[in-house]
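[step 3/7] fold_predict: job queued, chain A
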Amino acid sequence: MISVVIPTYKEADSIQEVIRRAAATLSQSGEEYELIVVDDNSGDGTAELAEELAQKFPVRVLRRPGRQGLATAVVAGWGIARGDMLGVIDSDLQHPPEILTPLARALRSSNADLAIASRYVAGGGTSDWKLSRRLISRGATHLAASVLPLKLATVSDPMSGMFLVRSKAIKGAKLSPLGYKILLEVLGKGQIEKIAEVAYQFEVRTRGSSKLGFRQYGEYLTHLMRLSWSTGQIGAWVEYSIVGLTGTAVDLGLVYWGAERAGWGVAWALPVAVQAALLWNFLGNQLVTFPQPTHSNSPKSRILTRFLLYEKACLPGALLNICLTLLLAGGGTRLILAAACGVLVDGAFNLLFKVPAIWRVWGSPISVSHGDLMPASPHGS
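[step 4/7] structure written:
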């Protein structure tokens, strides 16, 4: 049975269409289902309009006092759900309800633990979003993957507001989300080993108004920090940082020794130092941050492949390091200070842009597959 939670706050203009379309597609799927509307005291008749359809469709309405947040509404709805598959869909019609059937099919056919509706796989998209909206969305997605790379580095759309998860995958998990991104909580704390992603087109909002504001952005950042701590990700980050600091010492030490003691010249000492630091960091992370199980059947050649992938991910930052150091040293800056600036820019670039790619080198406990594309909807895309 599929239990889909529809969290609402002042969605009177769209709630009945969401229910009708969700019911229609789930009926066609052949799955037994229920729709659970969790309303945060909207005051505009949202709950009453949902209850009007309870005679036609398997709809239940849970009313909560005050505005407590989308993510906690989903958890409350799951708390009274009867299904072995638990889902969520936003009530703003930007997530087409018709995607529920492909999600259920992907979850069943692939034996996945979680099926996510994704805007960022082949066939997905964001309609006619403005550039600013695209940058905010991509930035938030990259930030999540950077803060929680062990959990999110392989997931294309961890910010999705529509997914299905097997109830057993979150059984016993203490879900305590903050804000509006419940999927982050599921990915962080659930027993998720396999994910199916299904493409969909994020539709333009035509009814109601967006609930996002500075408060929600702040809650999002706080939620990421809390998850980093509760999932143990912060420990891996500490180890990764320590390895990086020792790599900095290797880089600067070799630059100084090679250029000023061994007489190699900067043009030779610098690339040797950068490469040695990369090798040092790789081995340090291999042994400390991402230790491989002693019983692993992975061939030894896998280490070389992993190192080459690591080199590829770190190459842009390494080139920035070398170019900036040569530029500053050529302008009269003391070599060790110029090299320190190069290392700093290198590290900042990797931290801001390359963390998911770097951590992905060591793989992920989560495997991701791409499922069915969403069928064309008569309601637009």
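[step 5/7] annotate
The chain has two domains: 2-231, 233-360.
The two ends are 28 Å apart (CA to CA).
exit 0
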